[in-house]
Design goal:
The complex is a heterodimer of chains A (185) and B (259).
Chain A lengths: L11 E7 L5 H7 L4 H8 E3 L14 E7 L2 E3 H13 E7 L1 H5 L11 H8 L1 E2 L3 E2 L10 E6 L9 E3 L6 H12 L15
Parallel strand pairs in A: 1-2, 1-3, 3-5, 5-9
Antiparallel strand pairs in A: 4-8, 6-7
Chain B lengths: L1 H5 L2 E4 L2 E4 L6 H7 L23 E4 L2 E4 L5 E4 L2 E4 L10 E3 L3 H17 L14 H9 L15 E2 L5 E4 L8 H9 L5 E4 L6 E4 L26 E3 L12 H4 L17
Parallel strand pairs in B: 1-7
Antiparallel strand pairs in B: 1-2, 3-6, 3-7, 4-5, 8-9, 9-12, 10-11
Helix pairs in contact in B: 3-4
The chains are: A alpha/beta (185), B alpha+beta (259).
């Protein structure tokens, strides 16, 4: 018998972020509850709200992105993820079809800003500090900007759906949700 | 075998399905408890054949080549809601090629309209959504069209949200065939085709439409909504939370006529 100890599998490096999202999908990731301990045996978190690391390491294995693209900064972050992650996953309704933020797409962005920043007696004062990312004319799903490898729908996807999806992926299978786990709401 | 041939039977994915003469393939299949995906078909109305989700392949052949290999020659593609069943016919429905095409059709419908499920009252009992779940549609694939569509809240009991209209014409058929009111019609061509109401103002509130009309209760998606009834069924207990759309295919079968 070969008594050699099995080689320790290196942990996969996972980066996550929320663009034009509500962090609900990240909350749902935490909803996998005690299975987080199993997950942490398999993966290490890179750039993520969980670690507060500000930029992706150059060789991340998986990038998980919630939210669509609504401003210039979102575009930069999305490109950073695409450049540094081997696999990109769009998680949640907003990342997949724009979701709630995309409800503004039927309106003119100038009209929206004028309505939101109209101050009584002082006209319209739209904030223009260069630190503030410029809004795009319309909110776009991620796959309209960069290549996305996998999609995990839901608003948010349940903890069980996220767990099934990630364990399938980590085991080298094509993620498959099936009845009860696949949801668009 | 001779029994099978004598009684009227065709084969759906190699399974014998009995039918009565005059029945379409989808009617016989659903009666036998075999689900064929569909959106514009409804057991109570004349088939329409427009959504193409019920497309099946009929009488594919396998031939042997000279070097001993076999090649499948695909049979003709037909909408099973408009094609009459014929004895001995071999019909394929649940095959990878057709499932892929159906996914693509669903994806095109999803990007053409504004289907934002989290904010839709029909979510959980929407046929488009239920079918997308059953087919495993994980993304819209195509760029979102973000079409600009109207919402008509002029009727006291019914909200008309055209953002989600898939032009299945079920409400048009119900209003004309059952209610005899002709409240709805389609107008325009191509991407500008849309549902219109039979009133000078174009508003539903100015028609003789009623919430008890058949047309008010056949919309497969979230266009014709009953006011003050939104989100009544809790998440987890809605139609397709309970069972996938392809369970209990008999529910979509034509009701047997009373003799």
């Amino acid at each position: 018998m070969n008594a050699a100890a099995p080689a320790v599998k290196p942990k996969l490096l996972v980066a996550t972020t929320s663009l034009a999202g509500c962090f609900g999908c990240h909350m749902s990731l935490l909803d996998i509850d005690e299975r987080l301990l199993d997950l942490i045996d398999l993966v290490a978190f890179d750039r993520s709200p969980i670690t507060d690391i500000k930029h992706c390491s150059p060789h991340c294995d998986v990038g998980i992105i919630e939210g669509g693209v609504c401003n210039a900064e979102n575009v930069h972050v999305l490109h950073e993820f695409r450049k540094n992650c081997k696999i990109l996953i769009a998680i949640g309704a907003c990342a997949i079809n724009g979701g709630l933020p995309a409800q503004r797409n039927s309106l003119d962005i100038g009209d929206i800003l004028a309505a939101v920043y109209a101050l009584p007696g002082r006209g319209v004062q739209v904030p223009n500090d260069p630190e503030i990312p410029l809004l795009l004319n319309a909110v776009h799903p991620l796959h309209e900007v960069v290549k996305i490898d996998y999609f995990l729908p839901g608003c948010p996807p349940s903890g069980d759906a996220i767990w099934k999806f990630l364990t399938d992926l980590l085991a080298g299978r094509t993620p498959s949700l099936g009845h009860g786990l696949i949801h668009y709401d | 075998m001779s029994d099978t041939q004598e009684t009227n039977c065709f084969f759906l994915d190699d399974e014998a399905i009995p039918f009565t003469p005059g029945q379409t393939i989808i009617q016989a299949a659903l009666t036998a408890g075999k689900y064929i995906p569909h959106l514009c078909y409804h057991p109570e109305f004349k088939p329409h054949g427009s959504c193409k989700l019920c497309t099946v392949r009929i009488d594919s052949r396998t031939i042997a080549t000279e070097d001993g290999q076999t090649i499948k020659i695909p049979g003709r593609a037909a909408a099973s809601c408009t094609t009459p069943a014929q004895a001995g016919q071999h019909v394929e429905s649940n095959i990878p090629e057709l499932l892929d095409l159906r996914r693509t059709l669903i994806q095109m419908l999803l990007v053409e309209g504004n289907h934002f499920c989290p904010s839709c009252e029909k979510s959980g009992s929407c046929l488009l959504q239920g079918l997308a779940y059953a087919l495993g549609v994980m993304n819209p694939h195509f760029p979102q069209y973000f079409s600009k569509r109207e919402v008509d809240a002029s009727h006291p009991d019914i909200l008309l949200d055209l953002n989600r209209c898939i032009l299945c014409e079920l409400c048009i058929r119900a209003s004309a065939e059952v209610d005899k009111k002709h409240v709805f019609s389609l107008s325009g061509r191509g991407h500008s085709k849309h549902l219109i109401c039979n009133a000078e103002s174009g508003k539903l509130g100015d028609t003789n439409f009623s919430a008890t009309d058949k047309a008010a209760n056949v919309c497969p998606v979230g266009v014709i909504l009953h006011k003050r009834h939104g989100f009544e069924t809790p998440y987890g207990q809605r139609r397709f939370d309970q069972n996938p759309i392809n369970a209990h295919a008999e529910q979509y079968a034509p009701v047997k006529e009373q003799v």
